[in-house]
Amino acid sequence: MANRGYDVVVDVDQEGDLGHTDLQEDLEFHSSNFETQPSGRGAPKIQPDSSSASFLPGPGGSSSNNPTSRKHYLWSLNFYAQAFDVDTAEVLRRCVSTIYPRANFLDVLEGNPDLYGPVWIATTVIVILFLTGTISQYQAMKGEEHFAYDFKLLSGAAGLVYGYTAFVPVGLWGVLKWYGSESANLLECCCLYGYSNLVWIAVSLVAWSPWGIVNFTVVALGFAASAFFLLRNLYPVLSTTETKTSKILLVVVFLLHAGFAIAIKVLFFAATSPVGPNKGADKDAGKGVADGGSEGKGDMLRMLMG
């Protein structure tokens, strides 16, 4: 007897006697579905859990029900939330990769650039620049007069660091898009510049010393390390443009970063730089002494000029 449509086969004699029926209670017939097909031909027999997110669109190519494939617009909070989707361990791992660049930093990001690390790194650099710049100015005073904190250093540090970290990568991304680079990513550019500021924390902690040679050496080393980090990781992206264009962009990136390093040295470490709270007073005092002998000539000149 064929077992088509059944799971259990039982032999029955002509009288319908099943013979030994002690096992009748254990015998059950179950209809099988070996040859039956679901109503939707080709549909999976086990439906996936709708609560689990998938990176692939569902049948028919529709991804409207998939939250991970929705576009986030610039004016929505989700657009900025995706840039902070990292934990502390991941940020520390990226900081270590910045100090010890064994692999390309864009590969370390694994397609998930963040702004959490860059924002905190830039803020830390600003605070340390203000503190060490204040110490450097205090040393430059040499106890000649009462020292007063110059909070313009704080606003200046914020403008310099935040401005450089935000506007330069945005401008670079715009230029790359203008020249048709498809690999340029705005968040990756901002993330790259943000983590490159990590070296300036160590530089700021040392460059306040009263020895000029130490200051210049530390700033030069910080510039070399951060410039190497930027150029090494930007080169694969810049090389997607024409050869001449990529070389020009590399030079521009190098010069802008050199200007950033010079601004840090000149504006915040006044012990050996021409900028400081006492420089203007010293210059005015020196100018007054130098002009003391020509005071009469100055009065006559003012009379002639009306």
UniProtKB/TrEMBL annotation:
Start and end residues of each Yip1 domain: 99-261
InterPro entries, per database record: Yip1_dom, Yip5/YIPF1/YIPF2
Membrane topology term: Multi-pass membrane protein
Chain spans, region Disordered: 33-67, 278-298
Ranges of compositional bias, category Low complexity: 50-67
GO molecular function: small GTPase binding
GO cellular component, one term: Golgi membrane
Membrane-crossing segments per the record: 119-140, 160-179, 186-207, 213-235, 247-271
Annotated keywords: Membrane, Transmembrane, Transmembrane helix
Subcellular localization: Golgi apparatus membrane; Membrane
GO biological process, alphabetically ordered: vesicle-mediated transport
Chief location: Golgi
Similarity remark: Belongs to the YIP1 family.
Record's protein name: Protein YIP
Organism: Alternaria atra
